[in-house]
Amino acid sequence: MVIKTFRDIVDRQKSIKKLEEMKRYIEKRIQELEQEKAPGPVVRAGREILKVEMAGKVTYQLERVKCGKPNCQKCPHGPYWYGYKRVGGKLKSFYVGKELPKEAKNRKGGQAPSVLQQ
Ligand SMILES: [Zn+2]
Q1: CA 100 from chain center: how many Å?
Q2: Of 6, 45, 55, 118, which is least packed with CB atoms within 10 Å of its CB?
Q3: Ligand 1 center to 20 CA (angstroms)
Q4: What is the pLDDT of residue 1?
């Protein structure tokens, strides 16, 4: 059997109902793939972002943090690295440390290093 291209399939389909079905399926797939991407710069109150590194599905950010305690002499704290990723559609954050492990730097695609996964 010859594998048809996307356009062949769509152009030969005369049923609007079927085309609508395809459209909904494509929209669902786009949403799913969007969910899998690294969340991109995550802006949070009281935090200054100094650096952003994307590694697969995880976004690492070097941040200075205001703890919110009144009269804190050490504010802002850090900078420290934090990781952000989506889990089941929800944004999760986790503390990484003062240094970003080199495996997390300049990685294109793929999974984040297992040591950094919660
Ligand atoms: Zn503080």
Answers
A1: 17
A2: 45
A3: 54
A4: 62
d(CA 29, CA 35): 10
91 CA to centre of ligand 1 in angstroms:
24
pTM over the 0.85 mark: no
- 35 alpha carbon – ligand 1 mean position (Å): 33
| Nearest residue to 55 via CA among 108, 15, 6 | 108
| Short-list 59, 62, 55, CA closest to 102 | 55
With 80 as the cut, is the pLDDT of residue 82 above it? yes
**80 C-alpha to ligand 1 centroid (Å):** 13
Q: Where are the domains of the chain?
A: 6-36, 47-116
| Helix, strand, coil tally for the chain in percent (to 5) | 30, 30, 40
**pLDDT at site 13:** 93
How close is the Cα of 78 to the center of ligand 1, in Å?
A: 10
Average pLDDT over residues 11-31: 94
- Please give the mean pLDDT across all residues of the chain: 86
